[in-house]
Every structure is written in structure tokens, then in C-alpha cells.
Predict the 3D structure of the following.
Amino acid sequence: MASGRRCPNCCAGCVTARISAVNVEDNPRFTLGQRLVLAVVPRLVWALFRVVGLTWRFEVIAEEGVTPVLFGQKPGPEIYCFWHQCVLPCTVYFRHSLAVILISRSFDGELITRTLQLFGFDAVRGSSSRGARKGLLGLKHIIETGRTAIFTADGPRGPIYQTKMGPIKLAQMTGAPIGAFHLQPQHAWTIGSWDRFLVPWPFTRICVSWAQWTHVPAELPAEDFETMREQLNAAIERARLRALAHFGKASQ
């Protein structure tokens, strides 16, 4: 697995400037109530899961031939994809990665962005429906500076377990490989949302399941994009199903 590295002509300030260049336009206006929530909730969530996350026990499995990224490792210029439901355990597991995640410009997206920044992540704003091109260009800069780009593959609104085309397009633009994985708690509360969002219990075991990497050729014809998307989708699903089987759980 490649180790994290920076472009020799760049520094952290350069990376931040490039992220800001993507984010400065079309900033949404929030109500007073929303601004209060944004000021308080991210710090509460960070404080809670900074403590609870210390009690989680991660167990890593991987398909044959796959070298997984272990807790605390700093990955390099790669693309990571996972389902939206496991954002919380992923946030704790990858908190030392300095990765950058694509997040929508909505109020919920702003709330998630501010929370993730407290865990050490950065964000490029955009989604599959709005600001998609700017978001991809921002993540392209991230890859070029040696950092990792992250997609919640079925976000921000689903359908559940169906990846969008963004990771495939970014991989074609950059040549970066796509890592597919899933983090499944043995015990968790499941929120009644579109993504069946998982909130792991304190002291629970969490399976970190890695599937085969997806490699997208730079010269991939337009008619083959859907086939490549389906290949990535199948990889993330295999990771999820293997994680469930690790704890003897049936497919959900």
C-alpha cells in the first residue's frame, strides 16, 4: 500500500487553498437556529465519539491478495468508497489519514463537514446532483497532492447500496486506484433513515472488511463506465456481506 506523501512543490497551505477555492462559491445561508446547531452539535458529537471510539475493537479482514489499510496508517493518493451507513466507525478508524471527503452543500452536509474537520478530515463540497464537477476537480487536486479522496458511495440520498459514477470518473481522471471496504459493528443501533445508519455500541467489535481494488483505465470508453461502476458496486457489497458473515449475521 502506498504511503502518504505530498507533492514536492506543495504544502499544507496549498492544499487548504485549493480546497477553499472549491468551497468559497455558492455558500448557503443558514437560519439562526441552524447556525446555533452548527456551533454546538459538531463539538458534542466529536467529544462523545472521541471517547466512545476508544472502546471499539477493530478486526480487519480482506479478500485474497488485498493489503488492507490498518488503523493509524496514512494512505497515499488513493480513492476510498464505502456505504453511507458506516460513516461513524469510518470516521474513527481513518481519523489519522488526513483524507478529504466529498460532502453535499446542504445543511446536513455542513453539519457533517464541521464534525469531520474536528476529527482531522477536510471536505470538498459537492454531490452527485449539485456541484458535481467542482467537487470532482477539488478531489483531483487532492489526489495530485498525495492525499486520499473519500466517497460515501451511495450518498447523499441513496438509493441504498448503489454507488454513483463519481468515483469512477475521478479514478479515470487521476489514475488512482479505488479501495472498497465496509465497517460493520457487531452491535449497533440502526437509525430508521434511508441508509439504515449505524451507531455502534460502546465496547463493540467492528469488522473492517476490504474487497478487491478497482482500477479504471484512463482511456476507458464512455460505454464502459456503467460496467466499471457495477464492478465497484459489487466490490463494496462483497465487503459488506463478508463483514456481516464475520459476526454470523444474515444479509440485511
Strands lie at 57-62, 79-82, 100-103, 122-125, 149-152, 178-185, 188-190, 198-200, 205-210.
